[in-house]
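Before we proceed, please read the two lines closing this message. Let me know whether the structure tokens fit the sequence:

…
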Amino acid sequence: ERAFDVVLEPREIAEAYDRGLTTQHRGRTRQVEPIQLLDPADLLTQAAAQEALGLKKGKPTALIQLGSGNNFDLGEIRQLILEACRTVAGLQVVWLDSAIADKPLDLPDWVKRIEGYPIAKYFHAFDFVVSAAGYNSFHELILNGIPTIFIPNENPMMDDQLARSTYAQVHGLALR
């Protein structure tokens, strides 16, 4: 702090559930609204996003973005999500591979893999998203009104994704 004129802290939609270190030092920070990478006008239309991703138009589509899996095993949750997706007739499933993943996950060939950043640009291609609840994903999805099921990464080295996703469920913003 001593090396800077001011410390800016992005606000948190789930602020009421925030128990992090910075909550004890709010008097020493200047809060700004939650940060989003893209303005809503920067998101592609549904048709343009579907075309850019090579998706079939008129079919329900789900995006799964659970992060890299470097600090927790995605195997069991991946299997449960994909089994649930298989029960929805005609559902297109898109898996976002993380650019920082140590190794790619094994996925069935009926799942379309994509990689890239920022994925928010393509949100309108999806009917719903299954996502980790990191700050960026959480705020982009909630503030853009994308129906989401959050699966928090509870590794101790992560921010409090459980609290953030619990807030979203309690307030009717998403499911956890």
Summary: The radius of gyration is 17 Å. The CA atoms of residues 13 and 34 lie 7 Å apart.
